[in-house]
Write a structure and sequence with these properties.
Residues 33-44 have a biased composition (Basic residues). The protein is mostly helical and 52 residues long. Helix content is 38%, strand content 0%. It contains one helix and no strands. It has one helix spanning 3-22. The chain starts with a helix and ends in a 30-residue tail after the last helix.
Length: 52
Amino acid sequence: MSSNNIEMMKKIIEEKKKRSSEQSGLSRATKVIGKKSKAARSTKKTGGLFDK
């Protein structure tokens, strides 16, 4: 790669770091405790070709 490309990549990375540091930490979704969950599926396999 040419040094010009490397310099451009460094510049882009620095801009991304700057943008991410400016964002507040509240963008992460809040974790819900006690969320409803679906019923567990049975892992027992019944029926099939050889179960006759």
